[in-house]
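Batch job 17 of 40 flagged for manual review because the log was empty.
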Amino acid sequence: MDKDIIVDEKEGPSQAQAAGATIEISGIKSVRFPDKKLETISRVVVERLLSYFVDQDRPCPSVVIREAKNPSDSLSLNDYLGKENSQIVEMKVDEGTFSLSANEDKKSFQVRVFKFFAPRMAKSKISLVAHRREVTDNPLQTYIPEFGEEFFEPGPDQDLAKGRNFVIKAYVFGDYLNDNVSLERGEFRFQTDTDLLNGISQTDIEQKAAEIAQSAVGAEIAERKKRKEVRIAEYVTNDAPWHRILAKEVDFSALPMRPSNQDIELHLQKKKYEQEITTRAQVTALLKSENPDELGEKISQLIEKISDTSKNDLIHYVSMRKCVLELFSKSLEIGAEGKHKSEGDVHDIIMPRKKDSEELNYDAHNLWILDERLNFTSYVSSDKPLQSSRDRTDITVYNRRVAYRGDNEASNPITIFEFKKPQRDDFADPSSKEDPVQQIIRYVNQIREGKFKTPTGRDILVNDTTPFYGYVVCDLTKKVKDWLQKEKNFTPMPDGLGWFNWFGNISLYMEVVSWTKLLRDAEMRNKIFFNKLGID
């Protein structure tokens, strides 16, 4: 008995002249209703039970709210939607119905769109209704990101000061919803996404309803989409010009209303990857094709797609080079404290110290600043001593050495770089133990004598005819120039920014070049690419 809903039930003839019920609301918590006025309570109740009040087939019973202390002060919820300055207003739509196919059977749905002023809800939503009860609600921005923020309606005579914010709520009705709701009306029996059994999923219904809701605020949604397009175009133009071709083919409608650079880049990278997978599959299928008639046209189409992808990658690569050269140029300037960067700081831009090509990815260095050939070498060691069977004293903390070569064959040259801090010239002092010219000569002799292996234990293959190239990069102060000419017997280059010498006995060609020349030559080699991209 204690589990019955109605206890001590008694039946008998009624003397009442009209049907109805009286409900008393008491003990309202302040946290839920900070404003307990009739207007606030009425709005909240109508908002929650709106599907009952707007049902066109079954009129809602009269619902009146009044205060016990002041019975004459009352509000009819049935009239709430129609009164002036109502907080809930139905919006007109051009076409408020749509149909979907459920296993070859057409199902019709009706959508009614309302704007909620001063809403409790934070987002615009879609609500599916069954038997006049709101069963589910999901954010409209799931389908159209431009619903992610509130809308604004100016006051009378376009007075912005008297305007109000509002959100949209679209209610969906239909027999399909009534027939597929659970007994408790807490959920539907069809699937959220693809539904093979019933034929229509919740996503199918909400997608169509979102399109109708969009038509109710079409001008504002169109303006928001336009702003998003401008935002994306600015990012591609200013920060990612390598995506120009791809951006013309990509649908950005799923991006947030105000996408960040990361949102845009991730979306483009995803589409790029999808295109590459598709193109690879098409190439594979084409190579397996036994129909010669289709080869010509398909090959042309595939080559065009591959070329577009390659262009994007090349634009990206060249743009990154310009950024690196700007950073490199900045590193050669005097800092705020009036000092130049150390050779280590400059060195790290070209290639991180204490690393070699066994530890770094192909594109994790900028050795092309020194020489384009370094991009195609099989082994590079940066400020990292090579293993010696006798000693490892050839590299000190101040020696910023980079050695490289092509395939590890005796006929291929080995190149060694020594970096010196900008404006530093004390290595030219008679008492200096850091003579970079002598350091390179000593290092060449030790390699020729077979004293060194790579850090992974690989032999460095050389013979008597293996050519060596040595480069010292430093600032050519007057002291350094005098030192090179009078003590090292070097010859000046025509541009005055470098010196060279040939050590025939050990097949070593050596240059001493300034940081200015290194930067200028790198900029000159890449200038034509920057110019073609319009980023010079």
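Reviewer: the log was empty due to a logging misconfiguration, but the result itself is present. Confidence is low (pLDDT under 50) at residues 389-401. Unflagging and moving on to job 18.
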